[in-house]
Amino acid sequence: MSMITTAPKAVSAWTIDSAHTQVGFEVTHMMFAKVRGRFTDVEGTIVIAAQDEESTASVVIRAASIDTGQPQRDEHLRSADFFDVEQFPRLTFEAGSLRRDGGRLVLDGDLSIRDVVRQVELEVEESGRGTDPRGNERVGFTATATIDRRDYGLTWNQALETGGILVGNEVRILIEVQATRAGS
Questions:
Q1: Secondary structure of 103-155 in the HEC alphabet?
Q2: Number of domains within the chain
């Protein structure tokens, strides 16, 4: 189900439910294995408009909340070699518009990491709507994108004796969002 086919007739505002939202990523390690992680502290808002191009989103992620399941790696990712969370505590995404590109639904926006801002296209799919046991209206979305971490100043790496690099440059972003209607 896409936002185009289910968009309401009027504008609706939604608050991201951080307890039911995951912002994850995966990157290649040693040229052949995938390392996955996530950020656990995410907040933001979504506005769904009747005209898709008027839909927006605003998201803030606390960089120190990175979690790969390995504390030593997480500390390295928080260091100046990667996210430098002391100097750059937040990652942000500000979406400007939603559009259809062929059969895809794309949310265009500015992703900021280490205060470097680059335009990103998130491929989005509405995963459902419903009412929770407390009577709150909820909506869910899945979104994906691929970025080059070097574009954001995340350039630390090591050459391997066998050739190649320790940490891949391409990062796949995997997002599962659940939001509640604002005011509910």
A1: CEEEEEEEEEECCEEEEEEEEEEEEEEEECCCCCEEEEEEEEEEEEHHHHCCC
A2: 1
Residue 52: domain span: 3-181
Residues 105 and 3 sit within 8 Å (Cβ to Cβ): yes
Distance CA 52, CA 28 (A): 34
Note the pTM of the prediction, 2 decimals: 0.88
Residue 38's nearest CA partner among 14, 67, 76 is 67
pLDDT in tens, 22-61: 999 999 988 889 999 999 999 999 998 888 788 899 999 9
Dihedral Cα 54, 108, 174, 156, nearest 10 deg: -150
Task: Note the pLDDT tens digit of each residue in 161-183.
Answer: 888 888 999 999 999 999 999 87
- Name the token pair of 33: 């294995």
CA distance 39 to 66: 4
- Provide the CATH number for the domain around residue 49: 2.40.128.110
Contact (CB, 8 A) for 7 and 52:
yes
